[in-house]
Amino acid sequence: MNATMADGVLLSVRGLHTWFELRRWGFIRVGHVRALDDVSFELRRGEAVAVVGESGSGKSTLAKTILGLHLPTKGEIVFDGRVVHGQEDLRWYRSRVGYVQQDPYGALPPFMPVQRILEEPLLVNGVAPKERRLSRISKVLDEVKLTPVEDFLPRFPHMLSGGQQQRLVVARAMILEPQLIVADEPVSMLDASVRVEILQLLRGLQARHNLSVIYITHDLSTVRYFCERVFVMYAGKIIEQAPVRQLVETPRHPYTQALLAAIPDPDPTNAARIRAVPAGEPPSLLHPPSGCRFHPRCPSYMKGICEVEVPPDFEPSAGQLVACYLYDPSIEQLRSEASRA
Amino acid sequence: MTSNGLLSVKDLRLYFRTLKGPVQAVDGVDLTLRGGRTVVVVGESGCGKTSLGRAILRLLPRNVQKYTGQIWLNGLDMMSLSDEQFRKEIRWVRLAMVPQAAMNSLNPVVRVGDQVAEPLLIHGRASSLEEAQKSAAEVFNQVGVPIDFLDRYPFELSGGMRQRVALAMALVTQPDLIILDEPTSALDVLTQANIMNVLKTIKKELGMSFILITHDIATSSELADDAAVMYAGQVVETSRADQFFREPLHPYSRLLMASVPTLHEDKALGFIPGHPPSLINPPKGCRFADRCPSRFDKCSEEPPLFTVEGDRLVKCWLYA
Questions:
Q1: Is the ipTM here above 0.85?
Q2: What is the tens place of the pLDDT at every residue in B46-61?
Q3: Entry pTM
Q4: In this complex, do A200 and B271 lie within 8 Å of one another by their Cβ atoms?
Q5: With an 8 Å Cβ cutoff, are B275 and A260 in contact?
Q6: Are the C-beta atoms of residues A10 and A43 closer than 8 Å to each other?
Q7: What CA–CA distances, in Å, run from B187 to A13, A237, B44, B159, B277?
Q8: Which of B194, B256, B263 sits opposite A265 (nearest CB)?
Q9: Is the pLDDT of residue B102 over 80?
Q10: Residue of A262, A267, A274 lying closest to B190 (CB–CB)
Q11: A242: which residues sit within 8 A by CB, 6+ positions away?
């Protein structure tokens, strides 16, 4: 990688594997759930990427591995030019990464008032004196528009509405002035009318502080409004990455195409048509299919190619990486070889 | 009295008793549905849409303070029936429901085939277990569950399959109307599209009528013939689906529609500032007035339903 590119990169993830060991009766190893299998990508400063996929595709595991909540089985995370490895690094790293959880009520301690919730991370990271902590708290509350600040400081989480709770979670993620925010389904528990408000808030904070954001979601339709790039995950792997518009207009991977075709826009003509949906369910991550993990459900499955080896990333158009043999430049040759065999 | 059409609800009220005072979950709802059609009831959480579904099916908790109004099903006045008559003749015979998070509402220790067959035995539609299971197998076919799943337990099925089983259970007695309460909200996108395909097929082939209760406006358009928007316990707009999705009338419906992100077209997204009023002591006039961008003096009085464009109903003074 050349130096000019590396300058803009905040987070670089290389060959990340997170496997969970499965045991029977507590000690006999019966295999691994390969929740994350060889994931690599780079995130630039000030860039927002979305990670989309169905439940069980490994998107939350990716978020938690990046946050350091799961330790990767293999692979490395490089943050701001420093490899994150060991307790010392982890402590340094965690204070620079904010986490916005899915369920705001579950993520907030019910017995702490707002002030205490926001002061805790500052205390843990040794921000003193008290005046400095308080001014930071009121600045953050102001930024997430929980104003007037004095009204909110003594309140407990249950005294806030769902939208306000999620703002508080965002405030807590922002309190240490992080460079990266990982938001795991930040709006899936909220009503449609509040969702946009929270997403616009995150987008505003991102622009103002030149934050990088990883936005984990299953809802592709919100992505185009809030992100620059999208990663599509299936069965523990990133199968396609592209700028949002490119992905929505020309999806390349058969799975991405199916996913986009399945998402309805509010339109009364929907009622008259049956959508083409690939049959079956995502595979078990204990024994994933050989080769491309989508091949048992794929409408363009090529026998003798897809199930043999895991497809590498191809780049059919600039900036769009697709892990699918359909975009292999030498596919015709492969096909004739496969048919001869 | 309007008793024409399949279902007709008039001035339905359902209040719950709480320590802080009565919660007016459903407050004067009118709704009509013709046979073979689907009406979607959309609204935010806490607007009373689930309570409406439960009120129609008379599945009430113990703390009911008030349950009044009229519900007619095929010309039959359901409110005049006793609870026992209602249980024997209406619930799961002519009116069935797929409850919220239906996939988690199956009995974990009973084989799914037996669960689906059970309503037939209870309501005397089948003389033996074998006969009931045969009908269950037919319904499994309709909803796209492989027949050999009849002998499985719920934990052996995926979420999408369990949702189909719950749907099969509602279909098995061949009711006139099925109430679907958030049938796809816990499912993945592809599974959701699959379930919607199943519902569309059933609607077309069996001429089934549905009430679809949901907060997901984009998905609701998959099945809708008519739309009703609920806000703070009241229906604020009813329209035909094609009119509603193209141009909603009530200011709340408009803002709600503007907050729905679209994948395939560009539009500016909006949100609704503030939050819905408490249903314990709702405001006197229009309940949306506090958050409404087109509020004026008249809004301090409660608006009636105005008829617009022939058959659309809007509860807003703008259309007086």
A1: no
A2: 899 999 999 999 999 9
A3: 0.87
A4: yes
A5: no
A6: yes
A7: 30, 21, 19, 7, 30
A8: B263
A9: no
A10: A262
A11: A229, A230, A252, A319, A320, A321
